[in-house]
Amino acid sequence: xxxxxxxxxxxxxxxxxxxxxxxxxxxxxxxxxxxxxxxxxxxxxxxxxxxxxxxxxxxxxxxxxxxxxxxxxxxxxxxxx
Length: 81
Description:
The chain is mostly helical. The protein has one domain (10-79). It contains four helices and no strands. The chain is globular. The N and C termini lie far apart (49 Å). The mean pLDDT is 79.
């Protein structure tokens, strides 16, 4: 995160790509990551946009979320039978 702006910029993402496991993405890939997560189209990621993007990019988190949703749907279905 850019400490001065409080936002994730392309430069800050590139600088921290190894820590985030994104070192194999290259510059174009990192730009695409910013574009994909940038919900307000300002060219940067605020904290919420970054968290949402990392959640979507993490298969482990997504499979956990799918399991949680499946269990919730099953419980709801059983209640309404």
